[in-house]
Amino acid sequence: MSRPTIYDVARESGFSIKTVSRVINEAPNVRSETVARVRAAIELLQYHPDPAAQRLGGGKLPTVGVVVDSVDDPFFAQVIAVIEARAMDVGMDVLVASTGMDETRMRTQIRRLARRGVAGLIVAPFGDTRTVEEALPDDVPVVVIDRKCGVTSKDVVRVTDEQGATDAVRHLVARGHRRIGFLGKLSAFDTLVDRYNGYERALTEAGIEIVPQLVETRAWTSDEAYPYALAMLATADAPTAVFAASPMMGLGVLRAQQRLHRQDVALVIFGDYPVAELMTPPTTVVDQRPVALADTAFDHLVRRIQDPTAEVLDTVLPTLLVARGSGELAPREGV
Q: Order of strands, edge to edge, in the sheet holding 314-317?
């Protein structure tokens, strides 16, 4: 049986997680009836906050700073939700900032959070190795998530980008596809380079020649990907399948498919998105496992706060191919 969480206490007591957290941390101005009901739920469930994490602030309520590309990104929205739940479960606060994938803004956000005295930072960096290394403070515990960006001095939690992409393209090859397109902006992140390498690796091992016309490396947003996908799918020798290196690029492909009525083109997207299961056909994805990534990052941050001299960890989590339908389409006849 899993350990009860603050969510269970909130559900049992009938109060919000915020109210339960205030009772746990003995905040002032909480009604006695509320305190009694929450404590009764805690006793019934035998809920115990993690004492190690509660000690992180040295007697005061510690705060975790989280810096991501965008709070609107479905992937990072899940990451933030998990970190908030983990933090709330042990009586910690969370401050969230976004970089907008801008190096100057990233540095500003990190400095701002550090000045506010956060106990630690969880950061999805943006930029080259030197830029990122200079932006990350040495006097605050830091865990880097999602992408390494060449960082070697901080704990890192990421996924097997190259292997996940290899698995996706192998999946398409196994269904008979030999003309497989790729969309992904290689200059954006090292993760996208890894995903392209996985695409190339799967085709090479299958003896399939890489066709330059089927590789588009300039698109980053959905709006940028759309015209490139439209042009790729509208040609007489269009690909029978496409591997999109991120959900944003995948949405651009889906728009192009809809415009051209080309739902016969198989599609696998690296990264899940909220309505993937509602598409026709449902979208096959490489799950980046944001919950596991955020859980691991939080554990690493607690470890780093408790022991600043601990060995630096580079943790790589496996991805998961989720077959839903779009990636299982066979090439249309005559192709």
A: 93-98, 63-68, 120-123, 142-145, 155-159, 314-317
Three-state SS for 98-110 is: ECCCCHHHHHHHH
Q: Which CATH architecture has domain 63-159+290-317?
A: 3-Layer(aba) Sandwich (3.40)
The pLDDT tens digits of the residues spanning 31-53 come to: 999 999 999 999 999 887 655 55
pLDDT of residue 290: 95
- What pTM did the predictor assign? 0.82
- Residue 22: its pLDDT value, please? 79
* CB distance 143 to 86 below 8 Å: no
Top-level CATH class of 161-288?
alpha beta
**Percent of the chain with pLDDT strictly greater than 90:** 75
Q: What is the CA radius of gyration of the chain?
A: 23
- State the DSSP string of 157-223: EEE-HHHHHHHHHHHHHHTT---EEEE--TTT-HHHHHHHHHHHHHHHHTTPPP-GGGEE-S--SHH
Query: How far is Cα of residue 291 from the mean position of the Cα atoms in its chain?
Result: 8
Instruction: Give me the architecture of the 6-55 domain, per CATH.
Output: Orthogonal Bundle (1.10)
C-alpha to C-alpha distance for 139 and 262, rounded to whole angstroms? 54
Nearest-angstrom CA–CA distance, 177 and 39: 59
Q: How far is CA 90 from CA 54, 66, 94, in A?
A: 6, 17, 12
What's the sign of the alpha-carbon dihedral 63, 69, 73, 79? Answer: negative
Closest CA to 124 of 66, 74, 204, 83: 66
pLDDT higher than 90, residue 17:
no
pLDDT band (50, 70, 90) for residue 335: low
